Amino acid sequence: MKSLTKVGFFFTIVFVFACNTFQYQATNRFYKKQAKQLVKQIIETPYSITDSLNNIPAPMWVGTTNFDLRKPNFVIIHHTAQNSFEETLRTFTLERTKVSAHYVICKDGTVHHMLNDYLRAWHGGVAKWGNNTDINSSSIGIEIDNNGFEPFNPKQIESLLNLLSVLKNKYKIPTPNFIGHGDIAPTRKNDPNIQFPWAMLANKGYGVWSEPNPSIKLKENLSVPYALALVGYDIKDSVAAILAFKRHFRGDSTLIMNDADKSVLSQLVSKKLASN
Ligand SMILES: [Zn+2]
Fold first, then answer.
1. What is the C-alpha separation between 132 and 205, in angstroms, rounded?
2. Ligand 1 centroid distance, CA of 168 (Å)
3. What's the mean pLDDT when you consider all of the chain?
4. Cα 149 to middle of ligand 1, angstroms
5. What is the pLDDT of residues 176-210, one digit of tens each?
6. Which of 87, 95, 143, 158 is catalytic?
7. pLDDT in tens, 61-97
8. 26/235 Cα distance (integer angstroms)
9. Residues 245-252: contacts with CB within 8 Å, 24+ apart?
């Protein structure tokens, strides 16, 4: 009886594994086809930049011998705003959704890698940070399974920190370039939610952080929106930019900018200017 139970358990495991593999067989094939298409596009020489240059002689093609792949320089952190990681994997493997990310981190800490880091995922949408208006081209997108209101699971954060360590070292991503979706798209997005542990991340070298300091005030000639723009925020809608700043750096969802908030903002501006 006992050994029969064991055999049953073994087959259940094999069956579940086979199901999972089978479930994504078709999309994994699609991934390969799509990647091959991109390779073809890259190795076609001369790579045509002449399409938009009407009546201008085509450039002479002389292939250089010295090049490699462009690297990601930002990490954008998201919450999925969905109810399970299965739902998110499904969303990211349906063509019609037109959304994706490089990584999805489940509640138990399991990490799903969905796209080669060198390729462009569709996770940022219309977004801006400083003068960078094509964040997808320069970033890695990490989605954390979270419905948008719940706390983040410690196992997820542990996996996230491990992943960030690998990415930061491998691609030499600057410390301030670990930011949230809500930071780069303040009018549309609020992820990761207000409970995300930004201070702890910054303490480990992923993103910047400042605590209020009564002796450091925002300069009188520096308005709050202008200071937010210096940090990187798109201030086209200054209310949205303030809310994004408050959520990320003050764990607060109000619009009020008190002395403590302004002190933090002032220090972030100084850090930003010092890093330029
Ligand atoms: Zn997002």
1. 22
2. 20
3. 91
4. 14
5. 999 999 999 999 999 999 999 999 999 999 999 99
6. 143
7. 888 999 999 999 999 999 999 999 999 999 999 999 9
8. 43
9. 247/182, 247/190, 247/194, 248/179, 248/180, 248/182, 248/183, 248/198, 249/198, 249/209, 249/210, 251/194, 251/195, 252/194
Please identify every residue whose CB atom is under 5 Å from ligand 1, which is an ion. Answer: 78, 181, 191
Centre of ligand 1 from the C-alpha of residue 183, in Å: 10
128: amino acid identity, one letter:
K
**What pLDDT digit, counting tens, does each position of 97-130 carry?**
999 999 999 999 999 999 999 999 999 999 999 9
pLDDT in tens, 23-53: 899 999 999 999 999 998 888 765 555 555 6
Q: How far is the CA of 268 from the centre of ligand 1 (A)?
A: 23
- Annotated domain spans of the chain: 1-49, 69-208, 210-276
Q: Establish whether 143 is a catalytic residue.
A: yes
Look up residue 185 and give its two tokens: 């798209």
Which numeric CATH code is attached to 69-208?
A: 3.40.80.10
Q: Return the residue matching tokens 């300069």.
A: 219
